């Protein structure tokens, strides 16, 4: 996720005073967390209620009030390598949770195969908890491991070689989707997410995605220079940008969402637009969401064309 995507996501809730995506000082890569300041405190509360637990691409984001800065909570991020390829994020948290409260965690995966790279990050609430985790787990063999793991503080300036390796881990080709079974699982997750978030009973219209190949670079409807624009029709009058983030976020990188509203009533006019970075991800979202029943409405989802409603 880029700084602009972070701003676009949280800007759909309310007016933002400032936002910052935290990056590694050496590699320039995102560390997986950021900060957003709203002008209206009520929007901050709404953002937590709306976006906490939202699944974006392969990640589930956590949104909460920022903690006051102090020396006790700085530099509490750990870099873990040598993890078993079969270890899940939940198992990683279970392994480290005995040492303190975990703020965030993640396991790096190969974007093509989806297989773990054996590298992960754990951010504790306090530095002292991270120190205890290093003492207790560095050089130890976790359950299911044949080799000991390495646990150390992330972003250690003296470890330039490891930083270079870490930088390479992030540089991978565009994600390629597996077959229909994986997409059925993706649909199941989205269906449950919408049900939990909005209390609506919804279902996916069965659609085939076999044989779908990349057409990036070809002049076809939807291409907008900065990404692929998707037209979403038959939205309810009370629909807002957050529902579009909820729906399209699990399929890939979303750069912008927009619900078209009536000037007088400020109600949704029944349609909106979503811009996604990658063609394959946009096509997969269309294949899965066209015909999707949201509440009492069946959505029509397609690439934007010249004949599509204009904003």
UniProtKB/TrEMBL annotation:
GO terms for molecular function: RNA binding. Pfam families: RRM_1 (PF00076). Transmembrane segments: none annotated. It comes from the Eukaryota. The keyword RNA-binding applies. Keywords: Repeat, RNA-binding. GO terms for cellular component: ribonucleoprotein complex. SMART domains: RRM. Residues 1-68, 76-156, 228-306 form the RRM domain. PANTHER family: EUKARYOTIC TRANSLATION INITIATION FACTOR 3 SUBUNIT G. Belongs to the RRM elav family. NCBIfam families: ELAV_HUD_SF. This is ELAV-like protein. It comes from Pelodiscus sinensis (Chinese softshell turtle). The lineage of its organism: Eukaryota, Metazoa, Chordata, Craniata, Vertebrata.
């Amino acid at each position: 996720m880029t700084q602009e995507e972070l701003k676009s996501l949280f800007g759909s809730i309310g007016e933002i005073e400032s936002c910052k995506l935290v990056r590694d000082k050496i590699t320039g890569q995102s560390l997986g967390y950021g900060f957003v300041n709203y002008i209206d405190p009520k929007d901050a509360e709404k953002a937590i209620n709306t976006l906490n637990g939202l699944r974006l691409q392969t990640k589930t984001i956590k949104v909460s009030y920022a903690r006051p800065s102090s020396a006790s909570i700085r530099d509490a991020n750990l870099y873990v390598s040598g993890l078993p390829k079969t270890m899940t994020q939940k198992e990683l948290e279970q392994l480290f949770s005995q040492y303190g409260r975990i703020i965030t965690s993640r396991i790096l995966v190969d974007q093509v195969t989806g297989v773990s790279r054996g590298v992960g990050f754990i951010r504790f609430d306090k530095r002292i908890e991270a120190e205890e985790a290093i003492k207790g787990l560095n050089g130890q063999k976790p359950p299911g491991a044949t080799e000991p793991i390495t646990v150390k503080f992330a972003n250690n300036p003296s470890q330039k070689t490891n930083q270079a390796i870490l930088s390479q881990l992030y540089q991978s080709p565009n994600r390629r989707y597996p077959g229909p079974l994986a997409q059925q699982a993706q649909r199941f997750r989205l269906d449950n997410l919408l049900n939990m978030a909005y209390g609506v009973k919804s279902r996916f219209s069965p659609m085939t995605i076999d044989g779908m190949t990349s057409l990036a670079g070809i002049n076809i409807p939807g291409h907008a220079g900065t990404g692929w624009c998707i037209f979403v029709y038959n939205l309810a009058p009370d629909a807002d940008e957050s529902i579009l983030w909820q729906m399209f976020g699990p399929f890939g990188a979303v750069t912008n969402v927009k619900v078209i509203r009536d000037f007088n009533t400020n109600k949704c006019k029944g349609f909106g637009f979503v811009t996604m970075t990658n063609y394959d991800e946009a096509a997969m979202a269309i294949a899965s969401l066209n015909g999707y029943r949201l509440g009492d409405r069946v959505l029509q989802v397609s690439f934007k064309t010249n004949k599509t409603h204009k904003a």
